[in-house]
Amino acid sequence: MAFKTRITEMLGIEHPIVQGGMQSVGYAELASAVSNAGGLGIITALTQPTPEALREEIEKCRSMTDKPFGVNMTVFPTINAPDYKAYAQAIIDGGIKIVETAGTPAVREIWEMLKPHGVKILHKCTAVRHALSAERAGCDIISIDGFECAGHPGEDDIPGLILIPAAADKVKIPMLASGGFGDGRGLVAALSLGAEGINMGTRFCATVEAPIHDNVKQAYVDNDERGSFLIFRSLKNTARVGKSEVSEEVVRRLAVPDATFADVAELVNGKAGRELLETGDLTKGVFWAGMVQGLIHDIPTCQQLIDRIVAEADAIVDQRLAGFRA
Ligand code: FMN
Description:
two-stranded antiparallel ribbon; single chain; Nitronate monooxygenase; 14 helices; 41% helix; 14% strand; 10 strands; 326 residues; monooxygenase; TIM Barrel; globular; binds flavin mononucleotide; alpha/beta; flavoprotein; nitronate monooxygenase activity
């Protein structure tokens, strides 16, 4: 049986499972595979070098699936910012109706561009107060990202078991639970905690269609739940990455008093990360990874993964939970 929630209805998808935006991973190959399997695939806008390239990637994805898919726009607090508005225009021109946003409040200028074109906004937040503020500002769905997540968990360190129901107590619009999800148990837990679907990043990196080197996929399988590391804590821009010699070196360098980003830039820059994903050489840079690595034991296709999650969730609800009723 399928799970029907406000999110499956709003997004027009079969299963309440979304693939989060992923820099250097979120290409048409992965997004279309997730959408074809009944979830929502997402292309990551800034993985494309130019807005024109994003237009082409959207067209490519459309040629690979006739199901809904979205685009992620992450607005970073950087000095050399890309032309976000030109990327947003490419999204509008490409006829995209679902956009996942993340990053600084400046992202709301992008919402204002997109919303008149009927685009639904999924906004990623790591705190209840941010989710409420995004709801007030008019986004459609909150993706609430717990401390377990790959990428930027924020600075509050609240795991999903608390963050999701705490947000559900206050947020009225539908929510995706994100961070640490990878199987049917997680899906049922998310629904129990008040979310109406799950968002996954790391788990989708360990799939056949993820366009990254097999060595990196294998690292996600080999690492257990302790296989991730927080970097940039002292810079108040905490990021969760895979545990490796390089990420440990980043932590070491930033532990020195007065250390700045410049002290680690060569290890963590985007080019180094891209090379790592392409070559599979884990000494080239850092790779994003969440605690959910402890639940990843294979590299299935997206179809196999999503089918398995839904079947497992079904069995938990119908058999395991039903069996506990007195
Ligand atoms: N989130 C963003 O908002 N923008 C990004 O560019 C981005 N890049 C990511 C790259 C990778 C390889 C991974 C694993 C995650 C990335 N994320 C990014 C975070 C995911 O969208 C998602 O929120 C997170 O992975 C959820 O936690 P999980 O990994 O435990 O499933």
